[in-house]
Amino acid sequence: MGDQQYGIDSNMLLRYAEEVKEIARMGVQVAVVIGGGNIFRGVQAEQVGLDRVQGDYMGMLATVINSMALQSALEKLGVYTRLLSGINIQQVCEPYIRRRAVRHLEKNRVVIFGAGIGSPYFTTDSAASLRAIEIEADVVLKGTRVDGIYSADPEKDPNAEFYANISFKDVFEKGLNVMDMTAFTLCKENNLPIVVFNMNTPGNLKRLIEGEQVGSLVSMDEIAVAMEKTMHKMQVTEAQQKSGKI
Predict the structure, then answer these.
(1) At the topology level of CATH, where does 1-137 sit?
(2) Fewer CB atoms near the end CB (10 Å): N or C, the chain?
(3) CA distances (Å), 6 to each of 42, 123, 144, in order?
């Protein structure tokens, strides 16, 4: 959507496609799930007098439109892609079949999953988590417009605390809004790490893939998270001592 109020910004579309192309050319197997909020969200249904289920299906179709746009942009850049849909729309995309998706990835094609999981009441986050588990992905990368996970909305609270590493348990206990609960629980129960990062910062995706500390990592490794907290406290204490506050 970019700076527009609606639809697809061609410049944003091309930039996202270029970022995906860059990591695909590194030999990384890439599967993409896109939302449809720039066109229609299922939760908007009640506002316009539609049934929730009908609205959710409309939202799924919106994700297919975005998926087709990304597929076209990638193919113009010379990237081989396949679009698989949770809803049967054989004229424009393949139906989702797990083994077919895995085979496409093995052939170094970028796989795009459209239409969510094909059922109402499930978000795009849930689709991303479920598909990631099915194809045995190493990690779920959630691209957002903020730098990662904070204790509060950083766009509203400048004092919000940033979490570079955090465990699934701490996310639950702190009530942090990482994903919807269904999606988050799927990742937790299957020990699938989540990285939340700013997709609008050019180069972030490549740096993340190359192993740099980008965004926030959610994982089962509570020991690593505890060490991160200890180091942070030590740094804060040292800074306070230098400033004469302690």
Answers:
(1) Carbamate kinase (3.40.1160)
(2) C
(3) 15, 20, 18
